[in-house]
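Just curious. Invent one:
>
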Amino acid sequence: MSSSKIQSANDHSTRFFGLDIIRAIAIILVVIGHGNFILKNTRFNHFPYINLIDGVDIFFVLSGFLIGKILLKEIDSDPRFGLKKLKRFWERRWLRTLPNYYLILLANYLVVHYQIINEDINQFSWKFIFFLQNFSSPFYGFFWESWSLSVEEWFYVSTPILLVLSLKVFNPKKSFLIVTILMLVLPLWYRSSIVNPNIDDNWYDLSFRKLVITRLDSIAYGLLGAWIFNYFNQYWEKFKTLSFIIGISLIVLITNYESANITFYKQVVYFAITPFSVMLLLPYAQSVKTQRGLLSKSITHISKISYSMYLINLALVAEVIRDNFPPKSEWDAIAKYVIYWSIVIIASSLIYKYFEKPILNWRDRR
């Protein structure tokens, strides 16, 4: 069997279609949010006219869940999970995330340097190389969407280290739960300690929503889901429908509950209950099987290219349109919104096919 056929078979056997649906929804929500300013001053402004959950929160929980399952599989097979397996874990993670990130980081630098988009080149620094641009203090004006990637990368670093240390004292089940609780509680405690009733909306976004040390718990809810799935699978399956209903109900409540950004709820509680509600969707989502047809294939494809879509949609597409081809009329805005989506999907598909997937195939052959 050829390597391409092996990879195809592996993709088919390891993918969960329901989780692909969740991932596809997440990236669609992100692209909608970033492209909305193209429709500004038209009747389609704020399309689709309802309050939507933040797609990044969905990505965070899904990442935590999938990484948690990988780590649990490792430590259950070998409770002496140590530096050798830790190194292998990081190598696989970084070959998945870093090549695309550095490619698009370079592209962002070029489009800002040559003034193709109106961002501040002086905001670029060595911190972007090591995902430190928003570790404990805000950044702005350059490669905005990289904030969430920093949160995820530091999660990939910190969680396994804590797990290795905990395994020296406790069994795998207790160790994983202890690490999960730490990752849930510490960011929550930190947000509580910096509550600021005088902050404006912009600094709320930068200082609470987009810092590594304030958002690691969002991913940890995925860890909690992985722990329940691994050790209490019978309840995971038994209550999947009820869990889904509660999760959807919470999301509707959260997205429609009006609260100012200066409140304790918005600065502390919101960032905990939103990922919790997403976690409740996972049991049912994981049970959804692949269906035949164009829609199913489209969902799977969007899921596969979602990382590239996330990286390019804002600065490299939406802002290029905004700063170089501003809409001149309502119909022009609609046309450019369609072009925006088309470029994002086509360019991301090409990046996935000719850059991301070959690297992943090489990684798996190693």
Summary: Confidence is low (pLDDT under 50) at residues 1-13.
